[in-house]
Amino acid sequence: MEKPPLQEKNAPSDLVLSRLINSYRLQEAIINNTELSIISADTSGIITGFNRAAETMLGYSAKEMIGLQTPAIFHDRVEIIKRAQELTIELGVPIEPGFDSFVAKARIKKIADRNEWTYVRKDGSRFPVLLSIVALLDEQEDIIGYVGIAADITEKRKSEDELLRIADENERMFNNTIDLNAIAGFDGYFKKLNRAWEKTLGWTREELMAVPYVNFVHPDDIERTQTTAENEAKKGDVMSFENRYRCKDGSYKWLLWTSTSDKNQQIIYASAVDITERKLTDQKIEESETHLQALITSLEFAVAEINEEGP
Fold this sequence. Notes:
Layout: H1 14-33, E1 37-41, E2 47-50, H2 52-58, H3 62-65, H4 77-91, H5 100-109, E3 113-120, E4 126-137, E5 143-152, H6 154-176, E6 180-185, E7 190-193, H7 196-201, H8 205-210, H9 222-235, E8 239-246, E9 252-262, E10 267-274, H10 276-309
Antiparallel strand pairs: 1-2, 1-5, 3-4, 4-5, 6-7, 6-10, 8-9, 9-10
Helix pairs in contact: 4-5
C-alpha cells in the first residue's frame, strides 16, 4: 500500500489557507466599499494601494498611481513645506519637505499622525480632508510601509464657516448697537459688555466687570435689582425693569432693562436702554401737571370766594 506524501513541516493546511484567503477578501471588500480614501505606500513613498474611494475623491485610477507615484502628487506643495517646518520644531530633528512631511511622526514616534490637509484632484480642484497616517509594522516591529486614511471634510468646513459667520454677525450686532448689551453671571458679575456702556456711563468695560454690578446701582435701587436678578435666575423668563446706574462723573442714568437667563450656563442675557431723558421729561410733565393742578385749585377757591361774597 502506497504511503501518502509527508506534508512539509510548518506548511499551512488547506483550512488555514482558506481562512487566510477569506480574511484577505474581507479586508479587500471593506477597503473598497468604504467612503474613506485608503492609500498605502512603501517606505520610500511609492504608492502600493489605492482604493475605490481614493479613485472617486481624487479622479485618478489605481493603475495610474500604484507603483508609479507618491502621495505628493495630490497634495499642496506649500502645505508639505509648512508641515515639514512644524515637524522639525515638534520632533527636534530636521524634516525634509516631501514624503517625510506625511510620515515622519509615524516613523519616529510610531503613533498615528492626524491632521487636516488639502487634497488636489486630477482636474486641479481642491478640497479639505482629515488625514490619519500610521506605520505598518512587521513581526519584528520594523516599519514596512505606511497607510493614510482620509475623510472629505468639505461639508464640515462649510458648517464651521457658517457658524463662524453667524458668530461674527452676532458679535458685531452685540458690539455695534446703541443699546447697552450685557452678559452677567449668577455670581453678580458682568461677563461681557458692549462698547455702548463706556459711552453711556464713562467707565471702561474692564472697570465694570471687575466688581459686582450692584456697586454701580443707585442705593435706592439695589434691593429691587437683586430681587429681580434672583427671580431671573429661578424662572428664566423674559423680564423688564428699571434702575439707575452710576456714571464715572458721579451722576446717574436711568436704564430700562429686558433680560432672560440660561440656568444651565448660569448666565443672564440682558439689554438696557438709556431712558434718562424720558425720565426727565416725565418729571417735568409731572411737575407741570402738579403746578397746573395747583393753579386750578387756586382758581376754584377764588371763584368760590367770589360766589360767596355775591354781587
